[in-house]
Amino acid sequence: MTETLPARTAPLPPKWNPAEVEGVLYQRWVDRGYFEADPASGKPPYCIVIPPPNVTGSLHLGHAMDHTLIDVLTRRRRMQGYDALWLPGMDHAGIATQSVVERRLAEAGEPTRRELGREEFVRRVWEWKAESGGAILGQMKRLGDGVDWTRERFTLDEGLSRAVRAVFKKMFDEGLIYRAERLVNWSPALQSAISDIEVDHKEVEGELVSIRYGEGEDSVVVATTRVETMLGDTAVAVHPEDERYAHLVGRTVRMPITGRDVPVIADPYVDPEFGTGALKITPAHDPNDFEMGRRHDLPMPTIMDESGVIANSGTEFDGMDRFAAREAIREQLRAEGRIVAEKRPYTHSVGHDSRTGVPIEPRLSLQWWVKVESLAKASGDAVRSGETSIHPPEMASRFFDWVDNMHDWCISRQLWWGHRIPVWYGPDGETVCVGPDEEPPTGEGWRQDEDVLDTWFSSGLWPFSTLGWPEETPDLERYYPNSVLVTGYDILFFWVVRMMMFGTYAMGRSPFEHVYLHGLIRDEHGRKMSKSKGNVIDPLELIDAYGADALRFTIARGSNPGTDMSLSTEWVAGSRNFTTKLWNAVRFALANGADPALPLPQEPTDADRWILGRLREVREQTDALLEDFQFAKATEGLYHFTWDELCDWYLELAKPQFDDPATAEGTRAVLGHVLDALLRILHPIVPFVTEALWTALTGGETVVTATWPGADTGLPVDAAAVARVEALQKLITEVRRFRTEQGLPDRRSVAAALVGLEAAGLAGHEKAVRFLTRLDPTGADFAPTATVEVALGSVDGASAGGSASAGATAGGSASAGATVHVELDTSGAIDVAAERARLGRDLAAAQKELEQAEKKLGNPKFTEKAPAAVVDGIRARREAAVAEIERVTARLEGLPAS
RNA sequence: GGGCGCGUAGCUCAGCGGGAGAGCACUCGGUUUACACCCGAGCGGUCGCAGGUUCGAUCCCUGCCGCGCCCA
Question: Which of A337, A691, A700, A732 has the fewest Cβ atoms within 10 angstroms?
Fold first, then answer.
C-alpha cells in the first residue's frame, strides 16, 4: 500500500481531504489488526456487541449515533490498555427481509414465494442477504467503526442457529415454551402473527353503531365499532346485578342476519354504566371477548381468513374484505331496521401492524409462546440489584414498568425466513422438541413445525451467542457479561429486555454491566425524520460532503444522555470546520518545529504554564465525563479547549515565544506535548484526522494503539500563571475593543506606551501585548491622544517566573487590582462620541453591578444568614464596582466636549 | 385514562439555590508570516404564566397554559 501521509519532518498538505484519506487509513487499521481482540493478551477485557442492524435495511443516522458512541467507548478503552472487543454483525429481520424479497420477485415478474417453494425461496433470500448485508458493512467502514471483523456474526449463522435450538430446547423442557391456541395480533398484510411490541395503537376516526338483537321486550341493544364481527357473535353479556337485563339472563336472543340464537350471559367484567350496559361477545375476534368466552365456555367461530376476508360465516358476506363487509352488513342491518343509533366519526384506538400500517385483526390461532413471568422478574432484579445499571437512571422506571407488566410472548411467525421451530409432530400426535445435538425423528408421518421464530428470539441471544455459546469458548469466558450496551431509548423494549431475559436465563447473569440509552436524531427543527416529511438525511451523504470525523463529532457533541438531538448539514459543516482548525493548528506547530519528544522547559513561560495546566484539567474532566457517558459535555469541552484556548490564545502567544531564542525551544516542547495529548484524547471521537496528524507530529505508527493520556499529562495548575494570563487576555481584549470602536484597523500603525505593566505583574508580557494588539513602540515624536485604562484583578507580580509548584494560589481577588494605562497615539483626534458611548456602557454596567451588590448587603438577613464566602464575594464585587465607577467617571469628565 | 419528560438569546441546546452561557444565525471591521471551512469586536434574554418555600429562585414545591414521548 502506498503511504499517502507524510513523515514527521515533511510539511503537512495545506488541506485535510477526508474523502481521499479516510478509506486508506481505515484499510490500514484493519490490515494491521488493530481492532482484533485477543483473549490471551492478559489485558483486562472490555466488550461491546453491536446492536445488530437489520440486514435488509441500511444504516441511518440512528445507527451512526450507536456506532459513533460505541466507537468512542471502545477506542478509548483500547488506548487505556484494555483488550477491547467491538463485535459486529447483523440480524436476519424475518418479516422485513421476506417482504422485501417477495416484493422484488413480484417487481421482476418472477414466480411467487409459494410457486418457488420453501427451499428455493430461502435460497433467494440468502442471495439478497449477501447484497444488502454487504452494503451495511461498507457503511460501517465509512463511519470508521473499529470493529473486530474476524468475529462478525449473523443471527442465521450455523453457530447462532445452534444457540437458538439449544435455548429453545432448554426452555421447552423446562416448560417455559408452550404451544397454545389463543387470540394473537394477526397482520392480514403479513399473514402472520406478530408480538405485542410490533403493534402500534393509533387513534382513528371510525363509527360506533348500536344494533338491536332480539325482539320486543326481550331485545337488547349493543354497540360496536366493528359491525362485521357480529357474524362471529356467540353471546350477549350483561352485568350480573344489572336489573334492566335480569329477565334475559339465561335465555337467548335471536341475532339478525345469521338468525342464530345466542345466550345472554352475566359477567362482572361488563361495565353497566358504559353504553347500554350490554356487550356483544365475539370470542374469536376480540381479546376481552376471548377471555369471556373461555369463562363461559362459548363457541369461538372464526369468521375471517388469514387475509382479513370474511369466510365460513355461512352468509352472503363470505368472500368480502373486512372493511367492505363492515359497510355492507351495516346497510343490511339498517334495511332491517336494526340500527338504533350511530355515532360518526367516533374516535377510538386501533392496533396497527407497525411495519405495514395495516390494522391488526385479533385472530384465534395455534402459536408458540414464551412464559415470561420468571424471565421478566429476573431481568428486573438484575437492574434492581445494581448488577446492570441503566444510564440515564430515569430510564430505569420505564424498564421496570415494562418487565413488571409483561404478557407472554408469541414467538412463532408464519414465515419461511428465520429459525424454523425445532419441533416435530408424529403420526400419532407425538410432539418432539429436537435439541442441537439430536437427530430429528425420521419415518412415515413425521413432519417439522412449519413456522419460524420471531427474529427477536435470536437477537435476544446476541450478547452470548456471538461469543460461541452454547460452547464454552475462551471468548465467552472472557467477554461475558458485556461491558456496555449502547442503543436508543426507543429500542429498550425490543433488544434490551429480550437480551436481559435470555442472558439471565441461559447464562445465569445479566448480559450487561451498563446499558446506555441515547436519544433520537431529529431534523434541524426537532422534528422526527421520516420519508413522508422528506427531511431524512443519509449519513453517507454527510460523510461524502464533510468527512466521517465531522459527522462523528457532530453526533458526539449533541448526544446528551436520554435526550434527542437536532442535526442539520450546518452542524456537520461546523464540525468539519473544527477538523480543519485542528489540521491548521498542527500544521503551524510542525512548521515551527513543535516536537513532543523534547523535554518540557525547566522554566516555562506563563502561557506555557497556563496551557499545560488547562490541558491537565481538560484531560481529567474528559475522563470523568466519558466514564459517565456524558458524550456531549466531553466533546464540547474539547472543542472549547482546542479552539478558544489553544488556537485563539496559546498559538498566538507562542508566536512571540518562537521569535525569542530564550523561549523558542521550550515552546516547541510545550506545543508538541499539548498537541500530542490532545490528538490522543480526540482520537476516539475523530479517528481519521487525528491519525493523520498524530503520526505526522510524533512519527509514531498509529494513534489507534497509542497510550491514553494519563496523570502525567500537562502540568499542575499554576494559579499565579493563570491569573497573569487572564489579566493579559483582559488587557488585550480591552485594547482591541478600543481600536475597533475608534475605527483603527489592525494594519494602521498605532504607537502606544504601556504604563503600569510591572505593577500589574505583567512585566514580561509587553511583547505579547504589542503583538496581539498591533501596538508599535513609541518614537521620539510620540504624542498620546487617548488612554485606555484597564483595571485588572490582582496578580502576584512577585511570583512572576516563579516555580510551577502544585497548588500555588494567587493572592485573593478581593484586594484592589492594578490598573494598566495604555497611552495611544492615534495620529489625530479620537472619536469622542464613540469613546463616550463605550465608557457610558461600562459605567452603566458598573452601576448596575453596584446597585445589585448594595441591595444584597443592605439586607441584614442576607449578611446574617448567607455563608461568609458568599457575603465576602458580594463585598468584593461592590468594591470593584465602586472603583470602576470612579475610574470611568473620571475618564468621561476628562473627555473633550464633543 | 396512567406514567415520564420538556418549555432559557432568531434557531438548536447546555446550566438547575448566590455574578444569564455555547454553537449556528445576525451587525461592524479585517488580503495580520496555521487557518476566509478564518481572525477581531459586538448586538441579542421580565430563563412559559401565577402563587409558595428561602436572606436570596432560571434552579426547590404547588397550580395553570403549551408541547413531546411511552403505555393502556
Answer: A337
Whether residue A731 lies inside any domain: the answer is yes
Same domain? A802 vs A882? yes
**pLDDT of the residue at A547:** 95
Please state which of the ranges A244-258, A420-434, A675-689, A763-777 shows the lowest mean pLDDT.
A244-258
Same domain as A548, residue A694: yes
Both A674 and A761 in a single domain? no
Of all nucleotides, the one whose C1′ comes closest to residue A584's CA is B34
- C-alpha span between A489 and A724 (Å, rounded): 47
**CATH code of the domain in which A853 resides:** 1.10.287.380
Bases of chain B within 7 A of a CB of the protein: 3-5, 11-15, 18-19, 22-25, 28-32, 34-35, 37-43, 54-56, 69-72
> What CATH number is associated with residue A689?
1.10.730.10
**Which nucleotide has the least CA–C1' distance to A729?**
B40
Q: Which of residues 327-366 of A touch strand B (CB under 7 A)?
A: 349
Same domain, A679 and A727: no
Inform me whether the pLDDT recorded for A815 exceeds 60.
no
| Residue A801: predicted pLDDT | 30
Residue A225 CB closer than 7 angstroms to strand B? no
The answer to whether residue A777 scores a pLDDT higher than 50 is yes
From the Cβ of A648, is strand B under 7 Å away? yes
Which nucleotide comes closest to A771 if you measure CA to C1'? B32
pLDDT in tens, A9-53: 456 888 999 999 999 999 999 999 999 999 999 999 999 999 999
What is the per-residue burial (b if ≥16 Cβ within 10 Å, else e) of A180-211?
eebbbbbbbbbebbbbebbbeeeeeebbbbbb
Residue A247, domain extent: 192-362
Please report which confidence band the pLDDT of residue A874 belongs to, taking 50, 70 and 90 as the band edges: confident
Residue A805 has pLDDT above 70, yes or no: no
In this structure, the answer to whether residues A735 and A826 fall within a common structural domain is: yes
Rounded average pLDDT over A129-158: 92
pLDDT over threshold 60, residue A203: yes
Residues A606 and A727 in one domain: no
> Is A394 near strand B, with its CB below 7 A from some atom of it?
yes
Write the CA distances from A765 to A90, A732, A739, A771, integer angstroms.
Answer: 60, 11, 20, 10
Q: Which of A319, A341, A362 is the last residue of a domain?
A: A362
Is residue A56, in this structure, part of any structural domain at all? no
Q: Which of A333, A362, A391 is the last residue of a domain?
A: A362
Q: Are residues A613 and A673 in the same domain?
A: yes
Task: Tell me the mean pLDDT in the region A473-478.
Answer: 94
Q: Are A615 and A642 in contact (CB under 8 A)?
A: no
| A442, three cell numbers | 425420521
A199-213/A220-224 β-pairing = antiparallel
Domain count, chain A: 3
Asked whether strand B has any atom less than 7 Å from the CB of A776, the reply is: no
Predicted local distance difference test score (pLDDT) of residue A802: 29
The mean of the pLDDT values for chain A is: 87
pLDDT at A654 over 90: yes
Residues 544-583 in A having a C-beta less than 7 A from any atom of strand B are 560, 563-566, 570-571, 573-574, 576-577, 580-581
Q: What is the pLDDT of residue A292?
A: 84
Confidence of residue A711 (pLDDT cuts 50, 70, 90): very high
Does A8 reside within a domain? no
Which residue minimizes Cα–C1' distance to B28? A740
Residue A701 CA to residue A718 CA, distance in Å, equals 34
DSSP secondary structure letter of residue A795: -
Residues A739 and A816 in one domain: yes
Which set of grid coordinates corresponds to residue A753?
Answer: 506606551
Check whether residue A746 has its CB closer than 7 Å to nucleic acid strand B. Answer: yes
Q: What is the DSSP string of A155-191?
A: TTSHHHHHHHHHHHHHHHHTTSEEEEEEEEEEETTTT
In a domain, A733, yes or no: yes
Instruction: Mark residues 675-734 of chain A whose C-beta is closer than 7 A to nucleic acid strand B.
Output: 733
A520 touches strand B (CB under 7 A): no
A870 Cβ nearer than 7 Å to chain B strand: yes
- Paired with A775 in beta bridges are A750
Instruction: Judge if the beta carbon of A493 is closer than 7 A to nucleic acid strand B.
Output: yes
A849 touches strand B (CB under 7 A): yes
Nearest protein residue to the C1' atom of B11, measured from CA: A525
